Backbone:
């Protein structure tokens, strides 16, 4: 029901804008929200693993990638162009708030399959 739009407060101040409850917070100026999709990590023994081991190895993989990503961003002098990197998840996916230039550069990393803008429908980056 919420469209993420703002409504004006009824206090006579036409410049005061209050976000609707549950609406998506804004992103820093010049930045957008992205989903970084990692390439498949082929694991021949995946069928033999239990759910917990698959979950934990996926979580560790994303945490290691995020650590390498932060280090790479600092080395490239692009750390200030990143507003946020999401929490590690067990899937080959990283959420990111950054400038379009950073998103394009991240796409060139060998372990990255693609970087796509987060849509309002998904709203994964919060």
Residues:
């Amino acid at each position: 029901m919420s469209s993420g739009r703002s409504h004006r407060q009824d206090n006579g101040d036409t410049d005061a804008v209050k976000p609707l409850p549950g609406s998506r917070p804004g992103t820093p100026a010049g930045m957008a929200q992205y989903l970084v999709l990692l390439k498949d990590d082929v694991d021949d023994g995946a069928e033999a693993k239990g759910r917990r081991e698959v979950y934990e190895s996926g979580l560790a993989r994303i945490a290691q990638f995020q650590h390498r990503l932060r280090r790479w961003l600092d080395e490239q002098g692009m750390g200030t162009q990143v507003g946020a990197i999401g929490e590690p998840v067990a899937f080959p996916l990283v959420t990111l708030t950054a400038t379009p230039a950073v998103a394009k550069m991240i796409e060139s990393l060998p372990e990255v399959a693609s970087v796509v803008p987060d849509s309002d429908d998904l709203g994964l980056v919060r």
Remarks:
- The chain is about 25% helix and 25% strand.
